[in-house]
Amino acid sequence: MKERNLIQVPVFVNSFFIVGGLGMGIMLLGVFRIFGIILPSTLLLGIAISSFIIVFTDYIVFLNRKIPFNYMNAFVMVSNFLAIGMVVCFPYLSLFNSEMILVYSDAVSLMSFGFTIATIGVRGSRELNSIIKQRKERIEALEKLLVVRDEEIEFYKGLLELDAEKDK
């Protein structure tokens, strides 16, 4: 059986587009809030938990490149399901009083922001290390090439000297 390439997966089933759509919807709620729309605190807590799940999942996927694709794909799908479920279902659960909801919403939001910033820092550091490694490898390759060129120059100088001695 032919192995499927990620590029062959139809766009409409790609979980990154689902998460992107969720993010756009949450940003739209932010715009509504600016214009005075009242959002239930349980919805905001659900969004905060959803955001934390998505950021945490992204961080785990980024750090664990050695986990087989099947397991990581299942982990991402379950995480995305939970994240969307938090936005859709959490507002209808009455698990906490309104004061506790605000405390938890603030706490989870801060954790999400912290995780997001930490992930950006870790990715930037890893990318910088990768760039430095590539540049060092390129420099080493160029140094080897220079050694070969120096040897060729010496060889041709020797030939020129032999040729000059013949002409005498």
What does this 3D model show about the protein?
With 168 residues, the chain is mostly helical. Helix content is 80%, strand content 0%. It is built from 4 helices and no strands. The protein is rod-shaped and about 105 Å long.
Order of helices and strands: HHHH
In whole angstroms, the N-to-C terminal distance is 74 Å
Low-pLDDT parts are 8-12
Biggest beta sheet attributes = none
Assign an overall shape.
rod-shaped
Percent helix, as a range, is over 70%
What would you call the structural class? mainly alpha
Estimated radius of gyration:
29 Å
- β-strand percent reads under 5%
Question: pLDDT average, as an integer?
Answer: 81
Number of strands: 0
Number of helices: 4
Any key phrases for this structure?
168 residues
Describe how the helices and strands are arranged.
Layout lengths: L14 H20 L6 H23 L5 H21 L8 H70 L1
Summarize the structure.
The protein is mainly alpha-helical. It is built from 4 helices and no strands.
